[in-house]
Each structure stands twice: as structure tokens, then as C-alpha cells.
């Protein structure tokens, strides 16, 4: 029984981890309607910067948030402005997908060029301390990630619902042309949203860096899982992504324990395919008629 | 035909670094870009140091050795580079290759071309298991790693723990690429031969970000001894998550990869990794009476590359390459059959190389004297503890 | 990308052979002759790699380009071919047979995994393809008994043509070059065949393609099957060439991306593009690896990524796009029609008078609509709609905006399934049938246009009409002939080679009708073909419709232009809020007080009082 509880808790914590990575992705997905294949590499870049700041300046890894998040915002905004914006008018999605795939390849190899193939370890400043909750235990760092994911979801919801900019963003997400006619500066909103999505993954990077060794290809694993989460949660739905992440975390943990560690990937992707095929609007998505679905 | 000539010379010109005269050329085929680049490069350095040493001593058969590099980043590329080295550069033999998949692909080419191939670092059984005439392997293999880890467990660790090895519950976990899979297979087989009790054998993808389920499974099954064959990322993850879950098996025996690297110890913390065993190629904290020439190698390495060796890969490549090159010096020429004859005659006794093991090829062209060593992390350093002749420290057992 | 352009650049055009054809031929020949001439194992290897990637990329392009389904999981099929070849090889079966076994397996797997994914478009299909690749890779690691697991599988070095393993390089080169030719031939044949037109039409506008009788799922499944089978055969060859396979190499995402990338750089959706991409990039990659790879870790991968981004940003149509632009600016501007105005309609001049509902030429019932009901959520869009259409009759369908006219059209052409009620269409066999999907409706002779014009923007006028003409003609030449004839009849003759996206709104509406007419429908549904066109065009359109009617086609026309309704319709039905509120001769209906109130408004009533 204890073991089962521990498996569940591990799954939840893993879910929190996936959630915080996926929130930025779903934001970009939902608003700009672009699948950012370089999202994992954004995470990787943020983790390397956190590692640099922590090791070179001796700061607590969480302190690097004041540099990493604005930096990632700029990176995201720049990506949208320079790479995606010129392609928005393209008739099919091919070119946008290729653009972000190209960016992903370039970033992985750039990291290899700068940091080498060695793993980079961010000092954990006690964030790996186990906390006992009854018979089960959890790492403090994991718990902070989980809490941060909840706060981030709530904050984004508030922002999107109540602020002027947030409303403009939602208008653009719902109907680009209509929003444009209403006088919303759509390109600006896109740049802002992409930046915002990247900033979210910047926050994720800061929180994850002390818990996981950073390497040039760490993004690949996270991003595939994040795609699963985003689709599961319903495209562009932020709370959906959060709950989707919890589901995937639990599935991953349970299948790893009960089916076998070598097949857990197959189980996770199998579920992903089932959802795509049976309910492409996601488990928690509202009935949405997205332009991508015919 | 003019066009043809032009293209040939252009292609040759592209591919060649200016060749000098009266040199003998060998291929150096390692993955030096892509995901395997780090240890591929580290392995290549061992070969380079061996060549430097031989050249400083007058070369072989009076000729200076020139290495032509090839990059075996993937299997298709490995065969392509092997072809380039053989047909464009005209190398007399190829040395390599660190990755088992790459050497298997590349040596199929060299075998058909009749060019000798010397494998100095790849561990999969299939490398020498194919009955090739021109492929030789100097380094210990997955079979050695499997055998030596079980022997160390049965002969040294279990007695040290005051247990009968047959009473211990053993769990074998491994990353699921060819490396981990084949080592784990040998561990399983040897353990069963020795009548040991293997209660769990489970693979996982090396790029995983979570091993907590596996840790729980091990704990649930009451595993006393964990044998893990892994790369760096998953070694770190496993050690950390086992520690945090409060899972403390009597012994953890790592197989190569991540367990032999200092950054792994730094990453998981010296207190966490304290007492963890490791079976791998000969490392640097070893009794030098068993490994003569080791300090000379380390000095040469530091002089050339400006850092300490990053892992034992360079050392093993160095030892294998040096033995082969010295044998070639005694050969009558560089024709493939002359090379093969010279190499088959190699007979280097145990305890006379910098890696400790001797070199003599068996009928499958595998070095039958190759062996691995047992190490333990003690006070943040990886020290050799097994076999006794090479040990620099006593095994430590937790209370 | 218009299809005619491809023809003129692949050297296959029968009409003329220009420098692009010669250049392409030279390139193709050089792929074989250079390595044979140089006779060096490494050079041969590079050229074998070029041919392999060019062929894989060409095969990918059938799905990724023609059908527009961007797969980044195509290594699945290549891997299946490789494994089938090796497993059978080790059982003593020659790879010449193994490759067809692999192809069959891959085709089946391809269809099974694609079928549910076809409602996913754009990034979703891409994600699904990646997920399938991952699942299959993990499974191939897991089922060691069959695949050898992570250690992979080797073949014994049995030499000779039977075993496809050679000491020399030239036989492998010959084989892969032959396979490249086959693949290019298949791609070329598809592109100019009915299947190719259907694929591109489906890619451009799925609904319009369905209206043209295209079974969109089936044609894409066929494309997937062909593409997968070709990839599998290439996989078998490559496995024999490497003599060693492992899951990490055979089911690799990076490899899949590479295949797609060559097509992108060469020009997606073109026949020659993938070959150009591979011929350019493979040597550059080899060179980059030799000169950059050794010096700095990751540098060459970085350059690779940047090249990809640069191509996407500055040459999104690839090399073929650039060539075409160059070819156009280089003195071939005359290809572009100078005029975009349409020509006169060849139609008998009729005196425009209200037709008699029982005029000669009207036959028995051909379409019966009974008790149609449709709700969207709480909204009752059509309510118990009943009417019949007789052969040779023109039925006007009018009503205010939001009355449910287009929804009704969608139900009587199979695009929407009614909640209740049935639609029966009399076939040529004289029996009434109740088809359920657009393709079945089309098979019974139903043709329709869309209120918002749905041209296949990237195709020329001729090709647009050909999509319709293919419905009656299987052969490309016959379809082209029929399309030309229809185009001239519809006054689109001068614009045959113009891209559809360049037409005026009047031209597009006419194109829409022409495409349907090329299908030679028996029942024609016209959805506001006169909206937004000028007075002269309205007059022409009326003449056009009368001429269509006189060939015996039954027509239902949704129309707001009253002039047209009055002069064309034998009968009119009026729909308001989903209900039929009036039915009868046009003159009577417009005087019906209900209609005047519900639809025409008081002003109209006063004006005509």
C-alpha cells in the first residue's frame, strides 16, 4: 500500500514537472497556432543559463529567475518576430514546422559546441531534501515545482481573463481576423504570446535545473512528453495542460512500476495516439473547432 | 575522362590533409560529433598518444605513422568514412571505434576490402562474434564486464558483507541500447551459472527523466544488490532517486559509463556515491605495479591535452593501439596478410601494460587476456579494489 | 505549385524540351556516370547515399508533398523494410523477395496507422507520425526475439546478386539508381494521373475535392501505401548495403527529419525537388563533416540547422521554386496570360422570359427530399423540409440570410447528415438511392458549388477543371481535353494556364461552375453563383445556366439576385427560419404575402405595388 501511494505521489510530482514545461507550449500552441518543436531546446537553454549563474556567481538557482525569465521572453519574442512572423502567411504548416525543427537542431548543436557533451550539474542548495509526508516522501524541489505549476496556471488564467492585454490575446486566439478588425495589433500579440510562452519555460528551466543534470539533448525527451500533455489537455487550454500533465505523470509512473520501465514510453505515446484519434480536442478541451481539425 | 580526373582529384583534395612522404597511414575512426562525441573523442586521444609515442621512438618499420581521422557519427556514416579511409586515403589499417554499432557497420566494409581493423574500445559481443578475418579487438568486452561484475560480487563483496552470495537478491537494471542490453545479458547468465538469485531484470531508455518507479520496484522486491549498466544521465538519476526514496541496497555495482566518471560523483554528491562499486576498463587510481607505464601515459596526456584524462577510455585505446603498433613494427610490410600474421603473434603478458591486462588474440581475434577491474567510490574518488593485485585500497562495507 | 510547371521541368513534357529538362537529365545521368567513371569506393558510397536519400525523399513527397500530410515518422517504413529484409535473409530468403514482403507489410502498417490520423492535419498529423515512430522503436527494442533488440541484427556476408551483397560498389549503385528511377517514375506518374490531381485537390480544399467526387480518405490511403512500400524497399536495400541494422538507426527521428528536409530544400510537392535537395545536400553534408566535424563538436549540426532555417525563410518553395522564378523572369513571361478577363460564353441567345413550369423537357422526379430536420445545438436549422426536383427543371431556392439554405444544400449533397428525414436521388438505373457521403452523391450524378468559392488555389484553371473532368475520364489526356472544352464553353478559355488564385471573383465563380460541369452532373446545386458579380456577368451567367438546363441537367440554385431567380426558375421554394413557407411559380411566390413579409420586406412590396 505504501508503495502504491509512493508510486502515485511520484506520478503526481512527475506530472507537476511535465505541467510546468508544457504550459508555455500550450500557450504558444493555443494563441499563435504554431507547434514549437524547439520548445525543449528553450528549456535546455534556460537550464544551461541557470547552471552558469549558479556555478559562476554562487547564487541560489532560484535567484537566476530574474535573469533567465526575461532572457527567455526575449528569445521567444525574437523567434516569433524573426522566424515565425514571416511565415505566418504561408499556406500550409510545413514551413513553420520545419522552421522550428531547424531552430531545434541548431540550438542542440550550438549547446554542444559551447558546453560540450558533458552533463552540467546545477548545485541543488538543499532542493533535493526528501520531505516525509506520512509513509511517503517527496523532494522539496519537486514540491516547489508542483506548487509553482499551480500558481502559474492560476496567474495566467487571471491575466488572460482580467487584463486588457489578456483579453486581446484571447480575442486573437479565438478569431484572428475578427480581432484584427477590432483594431487589435495581431503581430504584436503574437510576439508577446510567444515571449510569454518562452518565459514560462524559462521559469520551468530555473526550477528543473537543480533537480536534473543538464545536457544538450535534455530538451528532446521533455518536449515529446510536453506534446502529449498539450494534446491531452486540449489545445491551448492552460488548466487542461496542467491536468493532462498529471494524467501523463501518473500513467508514466504506474506503467513504469506495473508494466516495465522499458515500455513506459510506448504506453505514454500509445495513449497520446488514442487521444489524437478518438478525441482530438483533448480530454479536458471544450468543444472546439480548431482550424487544424477538418 | 578529364572530368573524371578532375573530380577524383577534387574529392581527394577535399578529403585529405596534406600527406607527407614516407609515412604510413592508418585510419582513426571514432564518433567525434553527435551524441557519442565526448567519449569517442576521449578514446581517439588514446590512439593519438600511442601513435605519438611510437613516432617519437622512430615510427614503425622506419616510417612515421600518420593518422587520418574519420567521423563515425551514425552507421551509414561509419561505413562511408571507412570507405573514404580505405579507398581515398589508402590507409593500411583502421583503428577505432568506441561504439559497437559503428564498428560493426564499418568493419563489414573493411572486411570486404580486406583491410585490417583494430577495435580498441567497443564492448558488444557481436564485434568479434562474426568470424571476420581482418578484425581484431584488444579491449575487454560486455562478456568480461558481466563476468567480472558477478565474480567480484561472489568472491569479494558477498564475503565482505558476511553473506552467502546465494542468499542475496540481485536486481539487474540497464539502459536499453545495445551496450546495456548485452552487459545485462551476460550478468544474468553468469549469475545463474553461479547459482545466484536474480529477482529482477529490467531495461529503461537512457534518456529517461524519472527512475522512481524502478527504484520502488527494486525496493518492493527486496533487492540487496543492484547491478546497473548505464550512461551518465541515468547513473546520476538512479543514485539520486534511490537515495531520496530511502532505498539502500547492500551494494550497488555500476557497469562502466556513468559510474566511472568524476562528474557523476560530483553530481550525486560524494556522500551518496560513497561505497558504490564499479566494474569497468582500468582506471587511474590503481596499483601501478599491476599497470606499469600508467603514470607515463597520464603525463603524456596532460602534456598534450592540458587536462587530466576524462575517463579510462583513452587509456584502453592507448594500450591496445600501442601493442598493435609495436607488433606492426616487427611485421615485414603493410600488406594485410603480413599485418594479420604480425598481430596474431602478439603475446603480451598480464601485468605488463598500462591497463594491467595482457594481449593475445584467440581464434575469434578477441583478446583473450582482456579483463576489467573492480573499483569503489571512496571519499569522492574512484579507487581500484579488485582484483587484489591491482587494488590500491581495501573494499569498504557499510555498517 | 501548379502541375503544368512540374511537367515542364521534369523533362517529361512531350511538347517541348528546354534547358530544365536537359539539366535534370544530366543530373540524373551524372548520379550514375560519375561514380562509375571514378570507380572509387568512397565516391560510390557518397553517390549511393545521394540516390538512397533522393529516392526516400521522393517517396516521402508522395505523402508529404502531394497529399500534404507532413510525416516526420517515415523511418518507420524504411525500418520495416530493413527488418523484413534482414529477418528473411537470415531465413535464407533472398532480399529481392524480402523487399516485396517488407513493402507489403509497410503498406499495410502505413494504411492502418494513417487511417485514423487523416482527420488530423498540419502539426497534429506530424505529431502522430512522430509518436508512431517512437512506439514502434520502443516495441522493436522490447521484442528481442524477432528484432534482435538493441544489439540489432546482422546478415552473413553471402556475396552475389542473389543476396544483394557485393564486394564491389557498382552493383549496389546500379540497384539503388534503378530504385531511384522507379521511385521518380512512380512519383511522376502519380503526379500527372488522376490520383495525383485528387491528392493535390484534397490537400488544397478537402471539401471542394469531396464535392468533385474525390474519395479523399481513399486517395490518401493509396498515397500512403505507395509511399510506405517504396520506403520499405529502399530500407531493404540499405540494410543489405550496411549488412547491419539496429532499432536506433532504423527508427530514428533524425533520419525521418532528414528525409523530409531534402524534399523541403528541393521543393515540396514537385517531382524533381527531392532529388535536387538530396543531390545538393548530401555532398555538402559529407564535406561539412569531413572539414567541420572533427574540429568542433556540434558545429556541423549547427550549420545544418541554420541552413534549414535559411531555406525556410528565404526559399520556402525550395530550389524548384527558385528555378521556376528564374525561368519565368528569364524571358518566359509570355507563359502568363496577359488578360484575366474572361471570354464570352458560347451559349444560345435566349429571350429572357419566365419559363413555364410545365414546359416541354421536364421529366419525372429525380431528387426527393423528405422531412429533413437538422439541429445545431439548440438551433433548429431546418424543420421538416420537403420538396422534389424533376428532371430538367430549375428550382430556385430563396430565403433571407440564415434561413438554412446552405445547410440544406450540405444535406442534399452528403456533406452533412440530417438528424431526421431522407434524401433520395434517382440513379441512371431508374432506382432511387439514399447516398450518405459526398462521393456517393457524386457517383449518382450530383454536383455542387460552394457559396464561398473554393478553388484549388495552387492549380491552374485547366487543372482545376481537370479535377472535375477526371470524374468521367480516367486518362489524363482525355481529362485535359474535356477540361479545355468545358473551359471554353464557360468562357474561361483564355485563362486556361492562369493560376486560380489570380482570378477575379466572377472568374472564380465561373471556375467553380466549370469544375462541376466537367463532372457532367445530372443534378447541379448552385450556391449563389451570381453574388458579387457585375450586371454583364449576371446576364452571361443566366445564359450559361439556361444552356446547362437545356442539356437536360436538373438545377437547384440558391440565389439572391432576383433578376436571375425570376428568369431562370421553373419553380421557387422559399425557406425562412428552416421552414418552407412558400412554393410555386416565381411570379406567384413573390406576390405571396408571407414571402413579402418574411423575406422581401415592405419596401419591395411597395415598389412593386
TrEMBL record, chain A:
The chain crosses the membrane at residues 12-35, 65-84, 96-119, 139-160, 189-212, 218-235, 266-285. Pfam families: BPD_transp_2. Its main location: membrane. It comes from the Bacteria. Belongs to the binding-protein-dependent transport system permease family. LivHM subfamily. Signal peptide: none annotated. The keyword Hydrolase does not apply. This is Branched-chain amino acid ABC transporter permease.
TrEMBL record, chain B:
This is ABC transporter substrate-binding protein. It comes from Paracoccus benzoatiresistens. It holds the Pfam family Peripla_BP_6. Residues 24-380 form the Leucine-binding protein domain. Keywords: Amino-acid transport, Signal, Transport. Residues 1-22 form the signal peptide. Belongs to the leucine-binding protein family. It comes from the Bacteria. CDD domains: PBP1_ABC_ligand_binding-like.
UniProtKB/TrEMBL annotation, chain C:
InterPro entries: AAA+_ATPase, ABC_AA/LPS_Transport, ABC_transp_permease, ABC_transporter-like_ATP-bd, BCA_ABC_TP_C, LivM-like, P-loop_NTPase. Gene3D superfamilies: P-loop containing nucleotide triphosphate hydrolases. It is found in: Cell membrane. It is a multi-pass membrane protein. The keyword Cell membrane applies. The keyword Transmembrane helix applies. Its main location: membrane. GO terms for molecular function: ATP binding. Pfam families: ABC_tran (PF00005), BCA_ABC_TP_C (PF12399), BPD_transp_2 (PF02653). Keywords: ATP-binding, Cell membrane, Membrane, Nucleotide-binding, Transmembrane, Transmembrane helix, Transport. It comes from the Bacteria. SMART domains: AAA. PANTHER family: AMINO ACID ABC TRANSPORTER ATP-BINDING PROTEIN, CONSERVED COMPONENT OF ABC TRANSPORTER FOR NATURAL AMINO ACIDS-RELATED. This is Branched-chain amino acid ABC transporter ATP-binding protein/permease. It comes from Paracoccus benzoatiresistens. The lineage of its organism: Bacteria, Pseudomonadati, Pseudomonadota, Alphaproteobacteria, Rhodobacterales.
